[in-house]
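#data-curation
PF: Archiving a pair of folding outputs for the training set. Convention for this channel: one message per protein, sequence first, structure tokens after, nothing in between. First:
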Amino acid sequence: CEDSHISLELRTNKPEGLVFYVGPTNSDAFKQLGVQDFMSLELKDGYPVLLVDFGSGTVRVEQRHTKLSDGEIHRIDIIWNKSTIDMQVDKCNLPTCMSVTAPQPPNEFLNVNGPLQVGGTHMKLAAVAEGMNWSHKPHDEGFSGCIKNLTFNGKLYNLGMPSLSKNADLGCNQGMAVAVTFGIDTSFLVAILICLAILLILLLAVVVHRKKTDDLYKDTDDIRENIINYEDEGGGEGDMTGYDLNVLRLMYDDPLNEKQMPNNTHLIQRPGPDDVPDICGFLDGKKQSVDNDPETNPFDDVRHYAYEGDGNTTGSLSSLASGTDEGDLNFDYLSNFGPRFRKLADMYGEDPSDEEDDNFHNAASESWC
């Protein structure tokens, strides 16, 4: 009984819960025998809290270095003797993860005769604590998670075969699920809504602007308000029904302006859009205008133009005797053609006289086509 050692491993996601309790199960033991010794280990805000009472006062040992409610496996070692009570987490020998205190004198030993209850108790600890002289009281809330490898002074407890169990499952293979609430800050939500509203306004502005631009180009480019791609087959045929014929109609002259216009006989009034044109009258009017026009030549007279070879005594080119030596050809007429034919006249014709030379010099300015 010099040194006692309890060790265990646990895993949980909840910050509150009673890991184990050993001590009186009712207040009769204190009333009859005056025994109030107990030991309990619990989680408070995720940190381990050890309560020990040797019968002369309750001490509290708390470790605030490592939080155990993170879903990972943690080891807890509890060692006590006459003068000290020590609690270690995850075999850490540093002062930050070790908590040591002394028991309340004058008692030096833990005197308990009750069962070891793991994960909770079958009775209400609040009712038991009312009849006890405990300065620190353990909580009734049960532990939710996994507890394994529970040893006392090196001896392993068989937690798979308890004498009494409730809401306990064998082994630690089952998964633990924690309900998580997705919280959104109010300011963050307001910022998201403002951004969405701005994007919506910008989108509407772009749509309205593009619509106005399309309407403007539509009015200037196409007066018929229909655009057809004539590269497609049948595009022109489909456009025939939508074409506005009023665009091609000529404006009817105002009768009031007829008095101001000069009375020219060659001007013809345009018929109204609903009048049926008189073709015969139109042609007769055109004919009279042309016949009465003094500046127009009478192109309808008959003219006779001589055909090639007409009036020539030679029947064909083969009948010409230009290639024979019979007789001399007369080229005297070349001198009458002007200075352009002077060279030919000198070669084939007679020598011109001085009088003819003067005529040639006087006719130097004559041009021929």
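PF: Second:
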Amino acid sequence: MNITAKTFLLLAVTTSSASAGLLSYGICQSGCNGMAVACYSSAGFVFGTVTAGAGIPAAIVGCNTALGCCMASCVVAGLSPVP
């Protein structure tokens, strides 16, 4: 087996399966952030401008909790292979 055949075989074995998990993860994260922007907007705030502290409204705490749960569920999308 010459070097070209070995190189081709190596490439064929290592690139035979494609995975779009990272792309799915990014799309999921974008969807979560869109949901958070809508949540903040419905509460009368702008996403990214509220600092964490003792005086933050309960609606913002709810938005942040929902955002955290959504982003945590995106890990499943990132780890699942998509052909």
